[in-house]
């Protein structure tokens, strides 16, 4: 399609950018003006290979025709409908499509607009679930160190990234944290799930002993922790968590905002690891990142507990103006169709070994102290510069961008998660650029 290249604005001061070093950025802005398939185009006309699917969300790749057309058509047909006490077909169709691709126990879908909102929604559903069943003492929530569950108050309370918590007051009360599962001395350069660390799940028994199981509502974890640096669950860890939660009547929530929709080569990580939680949070890949949307998937056990009151009574006092928004729903349906028709989850699964070999070929390059991977996700941990713990990886990010590759960094960890439409040649291109960057990094 022909279009005029957007101009870079003269004045960058009004936009207070999220999770960005604003002053530094505005001196040396990096701007994408268009995108197609696996590549972004920069304002100065260069192609940049998308090594991160945007922010772990553009799983089908950019500018996918089915999605673009569905959005245009829906905007002209029904742009908005009230989300409460009214319906429109696309939201119901999308909920059914999600249910049909989700593991069996997940029969119900509650729509949100982001990963953060999905987390808040899941925590609230968990608390309300116990309350409607007459177990209102179950109010405590358990997260994990280094967990990322978005940026709203529930999410940062159960989350375990210090910078995301420490500026924002006392947060939710009644929250405990499991230890994180990163054991660099025992598990470095492991391909896939590490051997050591399942025992860390047993810390949940300590928390239960401290507070009493009947005071605990839910445990929330990312089955594979993404934003905190791509940490794989040790073998047996998720199984153990599930076992202890079941034993004490505690709900288990998997935050699948990153792992949902094909990242590990399956629809959801729950399926990949063969461990079923009670609630799953999603967003990102649900609409290919094109339109904001998230969802919480609930088992019938959870959903049905809310359905026993009078028929005219509202069952859950929760929702958003844009829950199941028509255009987002249309984008979601077209995204799921694109995944299906292009066999993108199968592509991700089929390329996982090639990806793993290419990623681990970076072992031995300067400053590389660990490499981790699964499906089409990978992390390269760099040795931090003393006194400037994020600087080396950020320099790698800047150099990669200059050389035509988008990567993401968190602390001194480089995270990679390309669109699932990637092919072997593009994997070679990605790791070729990255190797070049790492060889020349101070
Ligand atoms: N949970 C997880 C596991 C995430 O990775 C993210 C985003 N990276 C979120 C929640 C928050 O999603 P959002 O930015 O859409 O609010």
UniProtKB/TrEMBL annotation:
Annotated keywords: Aminotransferase, Pyridoxal phosphate, Transferase
Alphabetized SUPFAM superfamilies for the sequence: PLP-dependent transferases
Pfam families cross-referenced by the UniProt entry: Aminotran_3 (PF00202)
Cofactors that this protein relies on: pyridoxal 5'-phosphate
Keyword rRNA-binding tagged: no
A GO term, aspect molecular function: adenosylmethionine-8-amino-7-oxononanoate transaminase activity
One GO term of the biological process aspect: biotin biosynthetic process
Entry annotated with the keyword Lyase: no
Family affiliation: Belongs to the class-III pyridoxal-phosphate-dependent aminotransferase family.
PANTHER family the record matches: ADENOSYLMETHIONINE-8-AMINO-7-OXONONANOATE AMINOTRANSFERASE (PTHR42684), BETA-ALANINE--PYRUVATE AMINOTRANSFERASE (PTHR42684:SF1)
Identification of the protein by name: Aspartate aminotransferase family protein
